[in-house]
């Protein structure tokens, strides 16, 4: 990796990935759409370009001009928003991926496109979900993710494009907020705990989902793209996880730091339905064996760091 383009750089993973990659690699271009321009450190620390994933000519022009060799394709609508706008979710998630893969095929770029725990569905084994298993999601988000996994594998096999991917669990960060995801409650709860001491939880107790602290997620992206290709049996896409918890367990981990924290349940049926169709916990042994995946943060260490950081920023 030398000249990197991030499509969707102003979103939840994009901002932090761009800032992290800029400390390691010579050129990291922050691709954005005019509705969500880069600001602050992202804007000031390196080049940015308008790259609308639905516009293949625009992608190709930026790739050629900057001699891009690696594309991180992070443009997507998250699960709950995608249910409200399924047509747009398909246009960005699958139409956009097709555009990226075509440019990558012509210009010789490697491509990273995250998949998700959302690529699984109600018929998938929910506990220790295997790497290779039933994927029949019932959300548009999931449909685009499974289709994207297949399309990316196709471009690798048929055209030799270096496509790689991980199935991200819920990502928890104190930098850019998520938007419209089913796992977002696990970010919101920390801000509510520090600022109000109280949280209205949209999911019921016992709703287990995989989660990961953002520093681990960023390492996963970079380590997979740096991995020796001869060791990769899988490509699109690897199960990765760091922890699995339900609302009660994350609330208890917060109470270990803020004993007065309280939580009440105010269920969101859309998000509850989506969460119920997703795994309780993933088996990520293939990622560990094929490219050495290893998370660093567990629930207590993530909680301590989240609360400390939010308090420090005020
Ligand atoms: N965080 C995502 C969501 O909730 C899952 O990949 O939609």
From TrEMBL:
Residues 4-227 form the NAD-dependent epimerase/dehydratase domain. GO terms for biological process: L-threonine catabolic process. One of its GO terms (molecular function) is L-threonine 3-dehydrogenase activity. It holds the Pfam family Epimerase. Belongs to the NAD(P)-dependent epimerase/dehydratase family. PANTHER family: L-THREONINE 3-DEHYDROGENASE, L-THREONINE 3-DEHYDROGENASE, MITOCHONDRIAL. This is NAD-binding protein.
